[in-house]
Predict the structure.
Amino acid sequence: MQLTAHQLRAFDDQGYLFMPGCFSDEEVAVLRAEAEAILVQERQEVWREKTGAPRTAFAAHTYSEPFRLMAHHPRLVEPLQQLFGEPVYVHQFKINAKAAFEGDVWQWHQDYGTWARDDGMPEPRAMNIAIFLDEVLPINGPLMLIPKSHKHGTLAAGHDKSTTSYPLWTLDQETVTRLAAEATLPGGIGIVAPTGKPGSVLMFHGNLVHASPPNITPYPRKIVYLTLCAVSNHITKFTRPEWIAHRDFAPIVPVEDDALITHARAHRVERAEVVDVHLVAEHRVLELREDPGPGVARARHEHVDRS
Ligand code: SIN
Ligand code: MN
């Protein structure tokens, strides 16, 4: 997928592009189910809020087939190859849960601020692509962006290790106030919070200032963040675990456009088969209950019942 001249100009001017309806309901359904299964796992890649609710699952593209396909998807990879004019690799992969009632704040920050300071990434030639897995509403902790703030380079930041469970290089209130005021001129509308259906995609410049409020609603707000970096701009400092800041700089070879849908359909068939097996087993139990018969049949009934 290639961005149009109009999209390229809008990205350059505003620092982000919002593309509703990029993935179909069928594609998102398999990703959402997979994300829910991953977020409840006890593994080092699943980071929790201070309350214990899941906050972020890192590196799911390395242990989940649907997310591997997503990280190689041409609708995400090709626009960034186009923007950077060269192949890209996966710098980071996150599923941010922003769990119902417990999803905590992400303070105001620039992504490239962290990639430069923590990972020694030479230039802001990397960016986040957000893929909505749930509907993002004005009320469930949407991502807020300050349009045009990417034009200010990398801003001074403090390393906040205490506000949430996850350390972050954050901007002070004075800087955010100034940038938000600038975003209203000329003809701007100030801070924006793109909302939309699952399957919507939001790409934003590595220096675009953004944040998100806590989610105190009963509606989860899962978003996947695929961070792609130009291969020639790979990181040079390895201070964070490999599953947070990847060290495999091999260029991504995109999969076919229908790879996720093919996987979703195959997966659904497998699940249908499992359901059929259960139905057969249940039917068998009922049969045995009705007429257990002597000896062997009763033993089989007991066996089926317990398992
Ligand atoms: C981020 O900025 O890295 C994540 C913010 C969010 O998911 O709300
Ligand atoms: Mn960020």
